Amino acid sequence: MPNSAAALRPAVPDAGDLAAFAEQLADLARPIVRSYFRTPVGVEWKADLSPVTVADTAVERALREAIAARFPDHGILGEEEAAVGIDRPVVWVVDPIDGTKSFMTGLPLFGTLIAAVAQGRAEVGVIEVPALGDRWIGIAGAGTRFNGAPCSTSAAARLGEARLYATSPDMFAPAEGAAFGALAQKVALRRFGGDCYAYGLVACGHVDLVVEAGLKPYDYMALVPVVEGAGGVITDWRGAPLTIASGGQVVAAATAALHAAALAELQPAAR
Protein backbone atom coordinates (compact mmCIF):
# COMPACT_ATOMS: atom_id res chain seq x y z
CA MET A 1 0.00 0.00 0.00
CA PRO A 2 1.44 3.42 -0.89
CA ASN A 3 2.50 5.66 1.96
CA SER A 4 -0.40 8.07 2.55
CA ALA A 5 1.85 10.89 3.80
CA ALA A 6 4.00 10.63 0.67
CA ALA A 7 0.91 10.64 -1.50
CA LEU A 8 -0.21 13.91 0.06
CA ARG A 9 3.21 15.56 -0.18
CA PRO A 10 3.43 18.06 -3.08
CA ALA A 11 5.59 16.82 -5.94
CA VAL A 12 8.86 18.68 -6.49
CA PRO A 13 9.35 19.58 -10.18
CA ASP A 14 12.63 18.47 -11.68
CA ALA A 15 15.44 21.00 -12.06
CA GLY A 16 14.79 21.41 -15.78
CA ASP A 17 11.19 22.49 -15.21
CA LEU A 18 12.23 24.84 -12.42
CA ALA A 19 14.92 26.35 -14.64
CA ALA A 20 12.53 26.90 -17.53
CA PHE A 21 10.13 28.73 -15.25
CA ALA A 22 12.94 30.72 -13.63
CA GLU A 23 13.88 32.01 -17.08
CA GLN A 24 10.26 32.96 -17.71
CA LEU A 25 10.37 34.97 -14.49
CA ALA A 26 13.55 36.69 -15.65
CA ASP A 27 11.89 37.48 -18.98
CA LEU A 28 9.00 39.00 -17.02
CA ALA A 29 11.26 41.14 -14.85
CA ARG A 30 13.51 42.55 -17.59
CA PRO A 31 11.08 44.96 -19.32
CA ILE A 32 9.61 46.15 -16.02
CA VAL A 33 13.04 47.10 -14.68
CA ARG A 34 14.07 48.71 -17.95
CA SER A 35 10.94 50.87 -17.96
CA TYR A 36 12.07 52.49 -14.70
CA PHE A 37 15.85 52.56 -15.16
CA ARG A 38 17.35 56.06 -15.43
CA THR A 39 13.97 57.70 -14.92
CA PRO A 40 13.12 59.98 -11.96
CA VAL A 41 11.74 57.28 -9.66
CA GLY A 42 11.09 58.11 -6.04
CA VAL A 43 13.20 56.49 -3.33
CA GLU A 44 12.10 55.49 0.16
CA TRP A 45 14.43 54.39 2.95
CA LYS A 46 13.53 51.33 4.99
CA ALA A 47 14.17 50.83 8.70
CA ASP A 48 17.55 49.22 7.98
CA LEU A 49 18.50 52.31 5.92
CA SER A 50 18.43 50.39 2.63
CA PRO A 51 16.63 52.09 -0.27
CA VAL A 52 13.55 50.84 -2.12
CA THR A 53 11.99 52.24 -5.30
CA VAL A 54 8.74 51.66 -7.14
CA ALA A 55 10.71 49.43 -9.50
CA ASP A 56 11.64 47.07 -6.64
CA THR A 57 8.05 46.70 -5.55
CA ALA A 58 6.62 46.41 -9.07
CA VAL A 59 9.03 43.65 -10.05
CA GLU A 60 8.55 41.65 -6.88
CA ARG A 61 4.78 41.90 -7.15
CA ALA A 62 4.89 40.61 -10.76
CA LEU A 63 7.18 37.74 -9.79
CA ARG A 64 5.06 36.74 -6.83
CA GLU A 65 1.88 36.73 -8.91
CA ALA A 66 3.50 34.61 -11.59
CA ILE A 67 4.85 32.10 -9.08
CA ALA A 68 1.53 31.82 -7.25
CA ALA A 69 -0.29 31.25 -10.54
CA ARG A 70 2.11 28.55 -11.78
CA PHE A 71 3.03 26.85 -8.50
CA PRO A 72 0.42 27.71 -5.85
CA ASP A 73 1.89 25.13 -3.45
CA HIS A 74 5.37 26.68 -3.49
CA GLY A 75 6.69 29.14 -0.94
CA ILE A 76 8.05 32.61 -1.73
CA LEU A 77 10.73 34.61 0.05
CA GLY A 78 11.42 38.09 -1.29
CA GLU A 79 12.93 41.35 -0.12
CA GLU A 80 9.94 43.67 -0.25
CA GLU A 81 6.97 41.59 0.96
CA ALA A 82 6.30 39.07 3.72
CA ALA A 83 7.49 35.51 3.22
CA VAL A 84 4.90 32.89 2.31
CA GLY A 85 5.27 29.16 3.02
CA ILE A 86 9.03 29.04 3.52
CA ASP A 87 8.64 25.59 5.14
CA ARG A 88 7.28 24.12 1.90
CA PRO A 89 9.31 21.64 -0.21
CA VAL A 90 10.02 24.28 -2.86
CA VAL A 91 10.63 27.94 -2.06
CA TRP A 92 11.31 30.67 -4.62
CA VAL A 93 13.77 33.23 -3.28
CA VAL A 94 13.72 36.49 -5.23
CA ASP A 95 15.41 39.86 -5.09
CA PRO A 96 13.67 42.19 -7.55
CA ILE A 97 16.64 44.56 -7.78
CA ASP A 98 19.87 43.42 -6.19
CA GLY A 99 21.84 46.65 -6.11
CA THR A 100 19.13 49.26 -5.68
CA LYS A 101 21.81 51.89 -4.95
CA SER A 102 23.38 51.13 -8.33
CA PHE A 103 19.95 51.23 -9.99
CA MET A 104 19.00 54.58 -8.47
CA THR A 105 22.33 56.16 -9.48
CA GLY A 106 22.19 54.95 -13.08
CA LEU A 107 24.87 52.25 -12.80
CA PRO A 108 23.77 49.23 -14.92
CA LEU A 109 25.42 46.50 -12.81
CA PHE A 110 22.34 45.63 -10.74
CA GLY A 111 20.30 42.48 -11.25
CA THR A 112 17.16 40.52 -10.56
CA LEU A 113 17.94 37.36 -8.58
CA ILE A 114 15.75 34.27 -8.78
CA ALA A 115 16.39 30.98 -6.97
CA ALA A 116 14.40 27.76 -6.74
CA VAL A 117 15.23 26.10 -3.42
CA ALA A 118 14.04 22.48 -3.15
CA GLN A 119 14.25 20.64 0.15
CA GLY A 120 16.58 23.37 1.42
CA ARG A 121 19.02 23.18 -1.53
CA ALA A 122 19.30 25.83 -4.24
CA GLU A 123 18.61 23.81 -7.39
CA VAL A 124 18.34 26.72 -9.84
CA GLY A 125 19.73 30.24 -9.75
CA VAL A 126 19.35 33.12 -12.19
CA ILE A 127 21.26 36.39 -12.26
CA GLU A 128 19.31 38.59 -14.68
CA VAL A 129 20.96 41.91 -15.53
CA PRO A 130 18.20 43.87 -17.29
CA ALA A 131 20.08 47.02 -18.24
CA LEU A 132 22.79 45.07 -20.09
CA GLY A 133 20.71 42.14 -21.34
CA ASP A 134 23.03 39.70 -19.58
CA ARG A 135 21.85 36.53 -17.86
CA TRP A 136 23.48 33.69 -15.97
CA ILE A 137 21.54 30.54 -15.12
CA GLY A 138 22.95 27.78 -12.98
CA ILE A 139 21.29 24.39 -12.57
CA ALA A 140 22.49 21.91 -9.95
CA GLY A 141 24.28 19.09 -11.72
CA ALA A 142 23.90 20.67 -15.16
CA GLY A 143 26.37 23.57 -15.18
CA THR A 144 26.05 27.31 -15.71
CA ARG A 145 25.31 29.22 -18.88
CA PHE A 146 25.96 32.88 -19.63
CA ASN A 147 23.69 34.32 -22.32
CA GLY A 148 23.05 30.77 -23.51
CA ALA A 149 26.65 29.53 -23.66
CA PRO A 150 28.45 27.37 -21.07
CA CYS A 151 30.85 29.25 -18.81
CA SER A 152 33.44 28.27 -16.23
CA THR A 153 35.54 29.79 -13.50
CA SER A 154 39.25 30.55 -13.75
CA ALA A 155 41.98 28.22 -12.53
CA ALA A 156 43.27 30.71 -9.92
CA ALA A 157 44.45 28.78 -6.88
CA ARG A 158 46.63 31.27 -4.98
CA LEU A 159 45.70 34.54 -3.31
CA GLY A 160 48.62 36.24 -5.04
CA GLU A 161 47.00 35.76 -8.43
CA ALA A 162 43.40 36.45 -7.37
CA ARG A 163 41.17 39.29 -8.52
CA LEU A 164 39.00 40.17 -5.52
CA TYR A 165 35.67 42.00 -5.47
CA ALA A 166 33.26 43.23 -2.80
CA THR A 167 30.27 45.47 -3.34
CA SER A 168 31.32 48.03 -0.71
CA PRO A 169 33.73 48.38 2.21
CA ASP A 170 30.77 49.75 4.17
CA MET A 171 29.14 46.31 4.37
CA PHE A 172 31.67 44.97 6.88
CA ALA A 173 31.49 45.23 10.67
CA PRO A 174 34.83 46.23 12.26
CA ALA A 175 36.14 42.69 12.77
CA GLU A 176 34.95 41.67 9.31
CA GLY A 177 36.57 44.71 7.78
CA ALA A 178 39.88 43.88 9.43
CA ALA A 179 39.77 40.31 8.12
CA PHE A 180 38.82 41.50 4.65
CA GLY A 181 41.63 44.05 4.73
CA ALA A 182 44.16 41.37 5.66
CA LEU A 183 42.91 39.22 2.78
CA ALA A 184 43.01 42.14 0.35
CA GLN A 185 46.68 42.74 1.15
CA LYS A 186 47.50 39.31 -0.28
CA VAL A 187 45.57 39.36 -3.58
CA ALA A 188 46.64 40.67 -6.97
CA LEU A 189 43.78 43.13 -7.39
CA ARG A 190 40.96 44.50 -5.23
CA ARG A 191 37.90 46.27 -6.61
CA PHE A 192 34.60 47.45 -5.13
CA GLY A 193 31.17 47.55 -6.77
CA GLY A 194 29.19 45.19 -8.92
CA ASP A 195 26.61 43.71 -6.54
CA CYS A 196 25.48 40.36 -7.99
CA TYR A 197 27.31 41.06 -11.27
CA ALA A 198 30.65 40.25 -9.61
CA TYR A 199 29.49 36.69 -8.92
CA GLY A 200 28.55 36.29 -12.56
CA LEU A 201 32.05 37.44 -13.45
CA VAL A 202 33.43 34.72 -11.18
CA ALA A 203 31.35 32.20 -13.13
CA CYS A 204 32.85 33.49 -16.38
CA GLY A 205 36.43 33.49 -15.15
CA HIS A 206 36.99 37.26 -15.13
CA VAL A 207 36.96 37.59 -11.32
CA ASP A 208 38.42 34.98 -8.97
CA LEU A 209 37.09 35.87 -5.53
CA VAL A 210 34.14 37.75 -4.00
CA VAL A 211 33.89 38.34 -0.25
CA GLU A 212 30.88 40.02 1.36
CA ALA A 213 28.97 40.27 4.63
CA GLY A 214 25.59 41.40 5.88
CA LEU A 215 23.71 39.71 3.05
CA LYS A 216 20.20 38.26 3.21
CA PRO A 217 18.96 34.99 1.65
CA TYR A 218 17.49 36.84 -1.32
CA ASP A 219 20.95 38.36 -1.93
CA TYR A 220 22.84 35.07 -2.14
CA MET A 221 20.66 31.99 -2.78
CA ALA A 222 20.50 32.53 -6.55
CA LEU A 223 24.28 32.89 -6.65
CA VAL A 224 24.91 29.37 -5.34
CA PRO A 225 23.95 27.33 -8.45
CA VAL A 226 25.56 29.94 -10.73
CA VAL A 227 28.96 29.81 -9.02
CA GLU A 228 28.93 26.08 -8.30
CA GLY A 229 27.68 25.17 -11.76
CA ALA A 230 30.62 27.02 -13.30
CA GLY A 231 33.10 25.05 -11.18
CA GLY A 232 33.51 27.47 -8.29
CA VAL A 233 32.92 27.24 -4.55
CA ILE A 234 30.56 29.45 -2.55
CA THR A 235 29.94 29.17 1.21
CA ASP A 236 29.78 31.26 4.34
CA TRP A 237 33.03 32.40 6.00
CA ARG A 238 33.17 29.19 8.06
CA GLY A 239 33.00 27.08 4.92
CA ALA A 240 29.44 25.91 5.57
CA PRO A 241 26.92 25.63 2.70
CA LEU A 242 24.67 28.63 2.20
CA THR A 243 21.03 28.13 3.15
CA ILE A 244 18.07 30.37 3.82
CA ALA A 245 19.16 30.36 7.48
CA SER A 246 22.80 31.39 6.86
CA GLY A 247 24.18 34.46 8.62
CA GLY A 248 25.06 36.61 5.63
CA GLN A 249 28.84 36.22 5.35
CA VAL A 250 29.58 34.99 1.82
CA VAL A 251 32.76 33.99 0.02
CA ALA A 252 32.78 32.81 -3.60
CA ALA A 253 35.96 31.52 -5.20
CA ALA A 254 37.00 30.17 -8.59
CA THR A 255 38.63 27.04 -7.16
CA ALA A 256 38.62 24.96 -4.00
CA ALA A 257 42.25 25.87 -3.29
CA LEU A 258 41.58 29.59 -3.55
CA HIS A 259 38.47 29.22 -1.43
CA ALA A 260 40.46 27.47 1.31
CA ALA A 261 43.12 30.19 1.24
CA ALA A 262 40.47 32.91 1.57
CA LEU A 263 38.76 31.12 4.47
CA ALA A 264 42.05 30.97 6.34
CA GLU A 265 42.31 34.79 6.21
CA LEU A 266 38.64 35.35 7.08
CA GLN A 267 38.51 32.84 9.95
CA PRO A 268 39.10 35.41 12.75
CA ALA A 269 35.79 37.14 11.88
CA ALA A 270 33.77 34.10 10.80
CA ARG A 271 30.56 33.51 12.73
TrEMBL record:
Pathway entry: Amino-acid biosynthesis; L-histidine biosynthesis; L-histidine from 5-phospho-alpha-D-ribose 1-diphosphate: step 8/9
The protein's required cofactors: Mg(2+)
Gene Ontology MF: a single term: histidinol-phosphatase activity
Residues reported to bind Mg(2+): 79, 95, 97-98, 219
Gene Ontology terms: biological process: L-histidine biosynthetic process
CDD domains per record: Bacterial_IMPase_like_1
Membership in a protein family: Belongs to the inositol monophosphatase superfamily.
Descriptive protein name: Histidinol-phosphatase
Species of origin: Xanthobacter tagetidis
Upper lineage: Bacteria, Pseudomonadati, Pseudomonadota, Alphaproteobacteria, Hyphomicrobiales
